[in-house]
Specification:
The chain is mainly β. It has a domain of 66 residues. Helices cover 0% and strands 45% of the residues. It is built from no helices and nine strands. A four-stranded antiparallel β-sheet has the order 4-1-6-7, with no helix packed on it. Strands 2-3-5 form a three-stranded antiparallel β-sheet, with no helix packed on it. Strand 2 and strand 3 form a beta hairpin.
């Protein structure tokens, strides 16, 4: 009896320094689709180009090309939006910091 599932595999889970592909293998049913997550971790703002293989059992390996950009987060919080919960200098208090 033929299977209604295709087995796939990412030959190299760790594609490049700071780049991980998940899941690195799995099954996909006929007529369905699945998601593959590419996680890029960088300590600097960069543009990147990566490629990695995708092998489906019984098929030739495919190559996936991906470009992207790691951006620096920009968060602006005005001093007037902080609520320190009435904590005085040189004292402490447990509270939840609220930002309006």
């Amino acid at each position: 009896m033929p299977s209604n599932e295709a087995k796939f595999k990412i030959p190299k889970k760790h594609v490049n320094f700071g780049v991980v592909v998940n899941p690195s293998n799995g099954l996909v049913s006929t007529g369905s689709q699945t998601s593959i997550t590419v996680e890029v971790t960088s300590i600097e703002v960069i543009k990147f180009y990566i490629r990695f293989g995708l092998k489906v059992l019984g098929q030739d390996e495919q190559e996936i090309h991906m470009t992207g950009e790691v951006i620096e987060p920009n968060i602006n919080i005005l001093e007037s939006e902080f609520n320190y919960g009435g904590v005085s200098i040189l004292h402490q208090n447990n509270f939840i910091l609220k930002i309006k």
